[in-house]
Predict the 3D structure of the following.
Amino acid sequence: MNKVLGIDIGATFIKAVLIDSSGNILERKKVETGSNFKEISKQIVSISDQINDHGAIGIGIPGTIDRTKGTIVSTVNIKEKSGFKIGKIISEETGKKVLIENDANCATIVESVFGGGQGIDNFICLTLGTGIGGGIVIDGKLYVGNGSAGEIGHMSIGNKYACGLGHTGCLEGYCSIKNIAKEIGLKENNAQEIYLLAKKGDKKAKSVYDLYGRYLAIGLANIGNILNPELIVLAGGVSKAANLFLPATKKELKNRTMSGLPSIKIAKFRDWGGAIGAASLFFA
């Protein structure tokens, strides 16, 4: 199969890319995400019709999926009843083979096939954004456990802050720029505003990232001590601020890991990585 259409369903935008087997982007498109998966399915069919030069479609879903049935089990940001047959619906409408995968796993796959994880048998990828997603590669293959392994953002590291699911104490809740800003009494709670303030040297804004880095280190230490990966890849929008939080992360990690600091890289693919990763399901 020479060309594949990759779809990344985000809370705000659906991103689509047409790639070849070398990972080259031949075409791309972005549209606002529909309010439910029935509407989103129609949008994907329309995109497929517009970018018709492909043999298959890979779709990154923000939530838990059933790969064999091609169905959605649960999602957070886009409400949908369990069992929606997104894979079957889109395949029947387009006549193309369709594979679906968790969106963070797609971000992991693209790093494995075309990015910083190439040739590395054991690594972890974290997507750092409003929430935290994760993917695990063991012996060169994506590890999904009983179907939903890799929900790194929902490991418990304490007893405060709620995550996107409303659970208390998750890494995702601790690694929230808004939650940390509120904790230290910073008036601004918009993540982009805080990022710009920190870049300008504002002490309180910088301390937000310092705390973020320390909390992230707790999660990374747990991963390192349990799985001992060769590499940890940091993807997602917050990874662009790595220079602000990684020093604190590495310092905290030294006190928490048994086998030394794992290698940490920033993802090669960011804005369009999820869509490229979805297409890469056919090349992995």
About this structure: The chain has a mean pLDDT of 91. Residues 3-107+272-282 form a domain with the Nucleotidyltransferase; domain 5 fold (CATH 3.30.420.40).
